[in-house]
Amino acid sequence: MTDIVAPALSRSIVTEIPGPNSRALLERKERVVAKAVPHQLPVFIESAHDAIITDVDGNRFIDLGCGIGVTTIGHTNDKVVDAVREQVGKLTHSLFGTTPYEPYVRIAEYLAAHTPGDHDKKSFFVNSGSEAVENGVKIARKYTGRRAVAVVEHGYHGRTNLTMTMNYKPMPYAAGMGPLASDIFHAPGSYPLQDGLSGAEAAERTQYHLEKHVGVEDLSCLVIEPIQGEGGFIVPADGYLPAMQEWCTANGVVMIADEVQSGICRTGATFASDHFGWVPDLVLSAKGIAGGLPLAGVTGRAEIMDSVHVGGLGGTFGGNPIACAAAVAVFEQIEADDLNGEAQRIERVMRPLLDELAERHPEIIEVRGKGAMLAVELIDPETGAPIPAAPISAAAGLDGVLVLTAGTDYNVLRFLPSLAITDDQIREAIDVIGRALASSLSAA
Ligand code: PLZ
């Protein structure tokens, strides 16, 4: 029998946006859902496959967002769906801390093998990226017996009390919702476009700040995203991360890679830390790890992870069997389907198209990122003022492409497509974005 490959579904807008069914649902939403929970594209999604999402009016969009980098392997990936179906009929919950089950151990084995470094590693699972950060910090504090936690500017780490304190921006994440957590310190990081520093110079600046402002004897951990996500896909200068790791190791500080957004083949390496030759003490994964199901992990040096007393880590749903089974299906495909190669393919196709856009529009001051984690930053070349990315994203949405924004100054368009996106879909999507960009910039 010959394999018949079904053609990828295409973008298709068949109603005004939002269509009548979405409009009715938006009205219901407004009545009963807290207004703090926004929506970017005013449509309700009914189904999705690979890189296409379909709304309740039958409109199909090319998805360059993946629910903020979650469905990296593709929406409703066949093997993930099969694994979930099989697991849901066998065991949906038992709580690993009372009666363990195999898929949890299997994911810990995969993470030990795939995270940077060949030292002995152990893992522990929770439900969300924020919880992974919380637990990474707890473990580092227990291991070091120190209180202070350092993060770098433009970082994002979550929405719990501790993690909203760790975010660079109080608005919208923490403003008015304090008191915030104590002992969190923000240091300058590496943002080559803004600071013009080499990795070594930026590292020296961070170290000086931490030594003078925090004091290393009290510093338990430094938490950094190897490529900053919400901050605008900021890629640190080469050498910055290894230099910080060396400094942390020399000073007994645990260095933690927040790979929640950049991990699991998003950037063309299984973990983005690999691009920089960084071997972190702890690695946090979430988002893409379970192909759309909620799962997050803390993986790290065995002696650090095992410094916590028995019963010191846990949670009812953490490492849920269905989410773990989905994650097994993701890890099995990493090598079998060369997912990192797919992310590299996406960069090969998309980056030149973005470079071309930048040639046409001097407002694109930088095209950056790695693999399937690319972005453009928008600055008015005459005034130096940030140009808001939201109107461009809104215009692209009306034309059938879902693209997210980011950046401390809201002036970054970020591209987080699924690895299943085809070359033609990439070209079509960037074409739509080019039109949205041209019309927004000329209207401004
Ligand atoms: N660390 C690096 O990117 C989540 C935020 C969406 P959770 N980023 C998307 C929103 O507006 O709430 C994120 C991240 C990095 C931690 C987190 C937090 O992960 O799974 O959202 O808790």
Globular, elongated, flat, extended or rod-shaped: what is the shape?
Answer: globular
Which residue ranges are poorly predicted, with pLDDT under 50 across at least 5 consecutive positions?
none
How many separate helices? 14
* Beta strand count: 15
Spatial ordering of strands, largest sheet: 4-10-9-8-7-5-6
Based on helices, strands and strand pairing, what is the structural class?
alpha/beta
Which percent range describes the beta-strand content?
A: 15-25%
- Give the full name of the CATH homologous superfamily of the largest domain: Type I PLP-dependent aspartate aminotransferase-like (Major domain)
CATH level-1 class of the largest domain: Alpha Beta
Total discrete domains:
2
Largest sheet: 7 strands, mixed
Radius of gyration: 22 Å
Helix content class: 25-40%
* Distinct small-molecule ligands in the complex: ligand PLZ
The average pLDDT score comes to: 97
N-to-C series of helices and strands? HEEEHHHEHEHEHHEHEEEHHHEEHEEEH
What is CATH's topology name of the largest domain?
Answer: Aspartate Aminotransferase, domain 2
The CATH architecture of the largest domain can be given as 3-Layer(aba) Sandwich
Distance between the termini: 56 Å
Describe the structure in brief.
The chain has helices spanning 20-32, 66-69, 78-88, 102-114, 129-144, 161-166, 192-195, 199-214, 240-250, 302-305, 321-336, 339-360, 390-398, 423-443; strands at residues 45-49, 52-55, 60-63, 121-126, 148-152, 184-187, 219-224, 254-258, 282-285, 296-301, 364-370, 373-378, 401-402, 404-406, 412-415. It has 444 residues and is α/β, with parallel strands linked by helices. The protein has 2 domains: 20-63 and 339-443, Aspartate Aminotransferase, domain 1 (Alpha-Beta Complex), CATH 3.90.1150; 81-337, 3-Layer(aba) Sandwich (Aspartate Aminotransferase, domain 2).
